[in-house]
Amino acid sequence: xxxxxxxxxxxxRDEIETVLIGKTDLVEHLTLSLLSDGHVLMEGVxxxxxxxxxxxxxRATGLDVNRVQMTPDLMPADITGTHVYNQTTGEFTLQxxxxxxxxxxxxxxxxxxxxxxxxxxxxxxxxxVTVQGETxxxxxxxxxxxxxNPIEMEGTFELPVAQRDRFQLKLDxxxxxxxxxxxxxxxxxxxxxxxxxxxxxxVTHDDLAAARADAANVYIDERVVDxxxxxxxxxxxxxxxxHGVSPRGALALQRTSKARAAVDGxxxxxxxxxxxxxxxxxxxxxxxxxxxxxxxxxxxxxxEDVLDSVTPPGAEDVRPNAA
Length: 323
Prior knowledge:
By secondary structure, the protein is α/β, with parallel strands linked by helices. It folds into two domains: 4-72 and 102-108 and 142-208, P-loop containing nucleotide triphosphate hydrolases (Rossmann fold); 218-318, Magnesium chelatase subunit I, C-Terminal domain (Helicase, Ruva Protein, domain 3). The chain has 14 helices and eleven strands. The longest helix has 17 residues, at 247-263. The relative contact order is 0.16.
């Protein structure tokens, strides 16, 4: 194993931090999802830099980025594309939609209708899009970063369960600390126009391929696999949950845990990798019981309770060739 994944993440983090302050965890999670071929849903109140982080990340990677502002009147064809009549040739030609990009930023995804949200379903899972009966492959890599606002309910449409499950990670974007906000004010006071345009590409497609290979080749011991399975089973057996984590969720937790190990410079997964990613990888997949919702029990609280109840293996026992 090389240090490609670690170097890849460090380059992105350092470049993005020239603009933003206090978002290192978001950059790390975006990197983990990109390295493990997933998609990310970011949730937070307005003004906490959700879209800015996505745009900065895309620019630093050098990937083609398309941003879609989700609105109630947006149609599926506005995302996937459609055939348009060409008067010059007398034929219909395909006009590709914004989904044909390496990074698709779906801004305020819960403001558009479920019909339009579903236009992303095939793309996110199959890496293909069907436009009027024609199936087309999407660029590689293909990475969806969606944002949503949790506090405004009027004029929004909750993501269907099937759509939520296709996001590998759900990240809660919180407010900065007082010190981080002080540094932010000072930075933008001296450079008010600072933005994504000030970030340059710091990694290449070859760097991405090498980092992905590093993550894929990370060793995961059977005891760590059993730990993941125990966590998933506990969500299904929880009294607060009607429907627990799906097999897709178990895969997401395993893949991102391997990516985290690679980014940390290790060639094997430890239980702390799984613990660190259990909430972002699993909490959006739970369907809580009616009693839990009435009692204001959160999905995050359920996952945290599960982690407290499941005993992890020892870190020294899960190394390659451990006795």
